[in-house]
Amino acid sequence: MALICLQGGNELSDGCRTMDALLLAAAGGGPVAVLPLASSPGRDHDTTAANAVAYYTGLGASAVTVGEPFDDAALVVLTGGSPARLREALVGTPVGEALARIAASEDRVISGASAGAMLLCAHTVLPENGLRTATGLGLVGDFAVVPHYGAPRPEWEDPLLAHGVDVLGIPECSGVLLDGEQVVAVGATAPTLVTREGRELLAL
User: Fold this and answer.
1) What is the Cα–Cα distance from 19 to 196, expressed in whole angstroms?
2) Pairing of strands 183-187, 174-178
3) Measured between alpha carbons, how far is 2 from 106 in angstroms, rounded to an integer?
4) 119 and 135 in contact (C-beta within 8 Å)?
5) Cα 42 from chain centre
6) Does the pTM exceed 0.85?
7) Structural domain that includes position 37
8) CATH (domain of 174)
9) 37 near 80, Cβ under 8 Å?
10) What is the layout of strands, in order, in the sheet containing 64-66?
11) Around Cβ 64, how many Cβ atoms within 10 Å?
12) Distance in angstroms (rounded) separating the CA atoms of residues 62 and 58
């Protein structure tokens, strides 16, 4: 399966460069496809897209594109924004099906930050219009993500734990790498694994 990175947010910033350079190297230098589907249409989307192109070009990517088609990308990046908007774009759609095909491929990398990380999982929290849980894309079945993590957030964690899903609390500029066999912490700050039994910092 593909290498998947779940990131806590503040993506496309200097604090993420070491982590994202690692992902780009794992993807053989690119090409990179950026999907800013969680961004609001218009200025927010266009700004995120432009920042992403400049960022990955600066990291040395062989090519950077925004949007579809992305089937040939070695690294696919889901940026943050609205979890509900991203869920509409991914769950039960051709875009989500294409991501699932890439996730089943060897030597490919998928990275999601904040809302992007949340929706790569099988379960997620949707904080808009009253917090509730929902199904995600399901490329990661074992965990759910609470991004921008700095302290326990029981209002997010408890509903996920009630579904029997372990929670990864991931700080900004930090992430968790999953390759189907291992769970490896990367980035600036150690993520927290939250289970019904308690909390554990994942060693960087």
Assistant:
1) 29
2) antiparallel
3) 5
4) no
5) 22
6) yes
7) 3-201
8) 3.40.50.880
9) no
10) 64-66, 32-35, 75-78, 109-113, 3-7, 174-178, 183-187
11) 22
12) 10
**Domain count across the chain:** 1
Cis peptide before 159 (omega within 30 of 0): no
Q: Alpha-carbon distance 34 to 12, whole Å?
A: 11
The structure tokens 């090409």 sit at 31
Determine if the peptide bond prior to 31 is cis (ω within 30°).
yes
Q: Per the structure block, which two tokens stand in for 99?
A: 């991501």
CB burial class (10 A; 0-12, 13-18, 19+) of residue 165?
A: buried
Share of the chain above pLDDT 90, in %: 94
pLDDT (tens digit, 9 = 90+) per residue, 74-101? 999 999 999 999 999 999 999 999 999 9
Q: Which residues pair with 174 in a beta bridge?
A: 187
> To the nearest whole percent, how much of the chain has pLDDT over 70?
100
Kind of pairing between the strands at 174-178 and 3-7? antiparallel
Place of tokens 């051709």: 94
Structure-derived torsion over alpha carbons of residues 113, 148, 131, 176, reported in degrees to the nearest 10: 50
Helix (H/G/I), strand (E/B), else coil: 55:
helix
Q: Which of 103, 107, 106 is nearest to 120 (CA)?
A: 103
Q: Region 51-70: what's the mean pLDDT?
A: 97
128 CB burial (10 A radius; 0-12, 13-18, 19+): exposed
